[in-house]
Specification:
The chain has about 375 residues and is mainly α. The chain contains 15 helices and four strands. The radius of gyration is 20 Å and the shape is globular. The C terminus is likely disordered.
């Protein structure tokens, strides 16, 4: 899932784009001059807690794929009930939070909050967000890694009523951490550590080199992948300043066990890294789409198609796992990625020209032949 560009009464059309500009202009937080070597996979307690909260509330979005694992909340409730515990503060307040989130498009920023706080610890991120909630308006004076995330959220949630909802959600998350998330993380610590190692090893061995020409062209040679159990097949992507290596962030969900979980998560990473191409390919078609929801659906479906094409070119031996992750027929999605998605006939008719635009952005000719300068070899070499 890419950064949304909401259009709502009283808000600038490009408010999320404005956030990205502000983030690019901000200097790196103190102590944040890490040396990046490719894409690094990591666990993040704050991202785990935050996305857990949105999953429990049921804030699923309107795209073709759920933003959160549909079975996650039920598993958490069953575990709590089995332990003899009553509903948490978050569960009790879920209907009220969901109503508030749906009423105001500004809360779509919540789907991306942990990406803005990449590298900040859970306590620092929560304290920075509490400072935004207490401030009522403007950006509170902060230092350290939490400042960048607080600036992003404050730029979108500008009104006192929005910040009141933020404060109430944060209070519910504090209780949720103690009652549910922290105990679960303690139980799963060894499994989580093993998974992160397996993802990193598999990415380095099978994905990084074949994808290098594409990632280099898109200034995405380095970054952070946050692995989160509560996310659905729809991940999150935040592209950083190309001049600051490593500041792009992907969040990806984990489903299943063993090899299936590893390959599925890495397939989601590939899809998220396609969004720069999708943005460019979609530019000519967005004026022909009737509303934001349709534009978001088409963009998400285009990203799935783009990832499939990228994998076919760069590492065809990985294409089967990618298609399995996203429910694509074994023969591929050519000519079907919009027309089988219950969109209107007028929107589905854009499928062929949009597919051609994606292929051009990937330096493919319409018949599927690969053109220079990004002609991928089996080992990722330019040919």
């Amino acid at each position: 899932m890419d950064i949304p560009l909401p259009r709502r009464p009283g808000a600038a059309p490009g408010i999320f784009l404005m956030v990205l500009v502000q983030l690019s202009a901000a200097p790196p937080p103190v102590g944040a001059q890490e040396a990046f070597a490719g894409w690094r996979f990591m666990d993040d307690a704050f991202a785990d807690l935050w996305f857990h909260g949105l999953s429990m509330v049921g804030y699923f979005g309107f795209g073709p794929m759920p933003l959160y694992d549909p079975g996650y909340a039920n598993r958490m409730r069953r575990e709590r009930a089995a332990a003899g515990a009553g509903p948490t503060t978050l569960e009790q307040g879920a209907p009220r939070f969901l109503t508030a989130f749906h009423r105001d498009e500004a809360f779509e920023v919540f789907h991306f909050v942990p990406l803005y706080f990449r590298g900040a610890g859970r306590s620092e991120a929560l304290e920075a967000l509490r400072a935004v909630a207490r401030a009522g308006n403007g950006v509170p004076p902060l230092r350290g890694r939490g400042r960048v995330g607080a600036t992003a959220v404050a730029a979108v949630l500008t009104r006192p009523d929005q910040r009141r909802v933020l404060g109430e959600f944060l209070a519910a998350l504090e209780h949720e951490w103690r009652a549910v998330v922290q105990p679960r993380r303690m139980r799963d610590a060894q499994r989580r550590e093993h998974l992160i190692r397996a993802l990193q090893s598999r990415w380095d061995e099978a994905y990084a080199r074949p994808l290098e020409p594409y990632l280099s062209r898109e200034s995405l040679t380095a970054g952070t992948v946050i692995v989160v159990p509560g996310l659905g097949r729809e991940g999150r992507f935040l592209q950083g300043d190309p001049q600051r290596s490593g500041w792009s962030v992907v969040a990806a969900g984990i489903h299943g066990e063993g090899e299936e979980a590893v390959e599925g998560t890495l397939s989601s990473v590939v899809r998220e890294l396609c969004f720069p191409v999708v943005r460019r390919a979609m530019a000519a078609f967005e004026p022909r789409l009737p509303d934001r929801a349709t534009a978001a659906r088409v963009s998400d479906l285009a990203a799935t198609r783009c990832g499939e094409l990228l994998i076919e070119d760069a590492a065809p031996e990985l294409a089967a796992a990618y298609r399995d992750r996203f429910g694509i027929p074994p023969g591929g999605s050519t000519g079907t990625f919009l027309s089988t998605s219950r969109l209107s006939a007028a929107v589905a008719a854009l499928e062929r020209p949009l597919d051609s635009a994606i292929q051009r952005e990937l330096n493919r000719s319409p018949d599927g032949r690969r053109d220079s300068p990004l002609r991928f070899g089996r080992q990722g070499r330019k040919e």
